[in-house]
Please model this.
Amino acid sequence: MKPLAVSMGDPAGIGLELAARVWAERDGDTPPFFFVGDADALERASTRLGLATPALNVVDSADKIAVDGEQLSILSVPLAMEETPGAPDPVNADATIAAIEKGVAAVRAGAASALVTLPIAKAVLHTADFGFPGHTEFLDHLTQDMPWQQARGPVMMLAGPSLKVALATIHTPLALVSKQLTRERIAHVGRIVGEALRRDFGIEAPRIALCGLNPHAGEEGNIGREEIEVIDPAARSLRGEGWQVADARSADALFHDEARKTYDAVIALYHDQGLIPIKTLHFWDAVNVTLGLPIVRTSPDHGTGFDIAGKGVARADSFRAALKLAWEMAQRRARA
Ligand SMILES: NC(=O)C1=CN([C@@H]2O[C@H](COP(=O)(O)OP(=O)(O)OC[C@H]3O[C@@H](n4cnc5c(N)ncnc54)[C@H](O)[C@@H]3O)[C@@H](O)[C@H]2O)C=CC1
Ligand SMILES: NCC(=O)COP(=O)(O)O
Model:
């Protein structure tokens, strides 16, 4: 198996120090990876953490990457300006974007088995005309021309030890959510989630739950009609295709311990409906994974952490979990 590619994320955030720490503390359970970003910035992050300077193998093209456990390979993407932890600078936006592009190219070229992205600050990238709400949509764009036999995403899933939650809408303003929820969209997301649970998570007969949109899942149409007109019909059509999908359930009662035992993944209808429960339960060890793409991509569940960048307190658990999940998914796909 080829190593994982790790894109650097916003250099003013905690991504550099997470990569430096995990490399310095690597053990037999750490999947092999190389870093796509600025080598000097990674060294500076190591120094700020008080770690020994890592031995680096800096290359300019993915075919020169060597993974030997002694040297960290860096696929070079130089910054325009030295980073200041906690103070993102749009001048480095192009390099941040280029690191993602090079990471994807490495996977596409067969030099990496999957991509793990470190966090970006979307607002900073928009200053460089980054026309995408996040990685998820950008990665879809970068892989559109790749063949893919199954239902095509992207769908954002956050996966933690006791909860997997996928989103029917991703970076959508709340005021637009209801308009964007159609039967077709929810059914399509349901298929992507079902196929991913089988293919990428090894769950043969996945059980999928669907959140309602309205309080009490609409109370039989008395507090909103989306459940009756959109969500339940989508669930019916998925059941018609053989998927185990229940009708919309009250979202406020879907995430407690007992409820979570009744499904393998739950589809939330908008970003915070799904991310609040998973980040409450699993902030340290959940992984953001993009479903329905021809490449495997994971990420830590948290953002750039500008308030703590450079202070040496950022926890690497979620990044470690993202490496582990990407490696497992890539292995499953390779075996299939
Ligand atoms: N995959 C990605 O690229 C993601 C990027 N973001 C971006 O991150 C930026 C900041 O977003 P926020 O909402 O502030 O979320 P955040 O996750 O960066 O920070 C929220 C809080 O959690 C703490 N925190 C985050 N990661 C931590 C870690 N590993 N160890 C210890 N504490 C940690 C931070 O210090 C902060 O107090 C935004 O620009 C957003 O777009 C947010 C989520 C995912
Ligand atoms: N809140 C998670 C998030 O926004 C991550 O977005 P993406 O960059 O993975 O698309």
In short: The two ends are 14 Å apart (CA to CA). Residues 253 and 259 are 7 Å apart (CA to CA).
